[in-house]
Write a structure and sequence with these properties.
Layout: H1 2-23, E1 27-32, E2 35-40, H2 41-71
């Protein structure tokens, strides 16, 4: 039963992501220092999301390491 629920949730989320991608085809230009990149809004949001996952995981791992070292004797 839960297997079908997970499959249904995956299908729903994939549909929402696909709908978001189709509705956000406008391009934006992002500049940093002397570099400039032009890409669709949906790709930009996806890249920012993935970078946020990596940096969030790094910060969480760093905090866990610090608390482990602080509590170890």
């Amino acid at each position: 039963m839960t297997r079908y629920l997970y499959i249904a949730l995956i299908v729903i989320v994939a549909g929402i992501v696909l709908l978001f991608k189709v509705q956000n085809l406008e391009t934006v230009t992002v500049s940093l220092l002397s570099m400039s990149v032009t890409l669709p809004v949906s790709v930009l949001i996806l890249v920012v999301y993935v970078l946020g996952m990596f940096t969030g995981g790094f910060v969480l791992g760093l905090l866990r390491s610090w608390t482990h070292k602080a509590t170890a004797r």
